[in-house]
What we know:
Elements: E1 12-18, E2 34-35, E3 38-41, E4 50-54, E5 56-60, E6 75-88, H1 91-102, E7 111-115, E8 119-120, E9 125-128, E10 131-135, H2 136-144, E11 154-166, E12 169-172, E13 176-183, E14 188-193, E15 214-219, E16 222-224
Amino acid sequence: VIAACDGTSGQFYVVQNQVPGPGCAIPATKSGLYQGSGVLDVRVPAGGGGAYLLMPLLQNDLPAEGDMGAEPNRIALTGFEIAIRFVDGPGTAADFFAQLAADPATAALLHYQTAWSGSVAPGGGNTAAMTSAFPAETARRLRDAKILAAGSLVRVNAQIRASGRKLTGAVKSDVFTYPIEICDGCLIHSVTTCPAMGAVLKGGICNPGQDAPVDCCTQGADLVCPATAAP
């Protein structure tokens, strides 16, 4: 478990995982919709970075102290630290994650850092962000290992910490634990030949392979999700 050790425990933390709006706009207020757990479909092709994207809402409860000039407790964000922990699933899945973690060449597929910029004002300020909570390469390897065949599910926890700096030095947030259920094909609503006719389900607003049904189509040997639509 990633532990806090910089004196900000309980004062710098992830409030919740925001539900994005149209155009992948992430609301920066606690009144926005949030999601308490996620679903990742490894059959849906992922982009280069994240197979599952998390939209953390950050809060800085350090006191405001900058009456004149620079605010010492404003946190300038530098990124996120993510650790993926296997929770349950087939024994072959437990072996898969254990082998990745034990090999120095693949350990970074389960414990890694992502970059982000921005700042969080003290005194209860909020800032919305985005980070990969499950790498695309890890998802591809899990799919290719055929562990999720025949409807099997794997559950993991993504443990996320935000990193940043304030005037006196580096800080890290408390650990935010986000459960993800992983499947192979469970979010694919339909598959047809490209291009698809009629309306197409797009999947997740920011990422087609997570949290919502998606229509796909085949183009040669490639699966395209969401499906390209006929003009």
